[in-house]
Amino acid sequence: xxxxxxxxDRRAQLRAKAGLTRRLHPRPADDRMTDLAGNDYLGLATHxxxxxxxxxxxxxxxxxxxxxxxxxxxxxxHRALEEDLARWLGTDGALxxxxxxxxxxxxxxxxxxxxxxxxxxxHNHASLIDGCRLSGAETVVTxxxxxxxxxxALAAAPGRPAVVVTESVFSVDGDLAPLARLHAVARRHxxxxxxxxxxxxxxxxxxxxxxxxxxxxx
Length: 218
Ligand SMILES: Cc1ncc(COP(=O)(O)O)c(C=O)c1O
Fold this sequence. Notes:
The protein is of the alpha/beta class. The chain is 39% helix and 10% strand.
């Protein structure tokens, strides 16, 4: 076996020895377990209106997008969904990705210019961490929910484009980001605030133009 393949094997063995091997646990369609680990907080995955619409879309459009969105993969169903989402959220627009991971990669890459500084919370989800890395921008990781550290990182990079990156409800601990204070600090330094709202949408705050800033802080 080539050396580098043997090295991969050794790494897998070390992971196993340390008890870090992850395994998939497929569930049956009629699973009766109470789900306390998934993200389907609103029960939309099995909501009759949602499954009926998905069935109708499958009949009308077939399975899969048939191409990337920029080529043949954008349908009028995508457009209707994005217009509905934007209206509902009170935003200028919406862009649907096929996963949260891809949304974070896409958003971060799109916001970065050559001198951009990213200021990322230490508890951010792996997709935000990968997004920061793949964007190629310099990234400062600040201690969890530490607004002073964010302010200091921004103050140390005067005149540079900067994006503060956080979740709203953190995925692992379930605590809330100090969004109002982060927003104020970002504003003061002319930075953008990028919020991954995966675990909060509809569950906290209010819908509309100001919803994201009005959450209760810890
Ligand atoms: C905060 C957060 N962002 C992004 C993701 C990635 O979403 P997806 O699993 O749809 O790629 C997750 C996944 O759990 C998440 O918790």
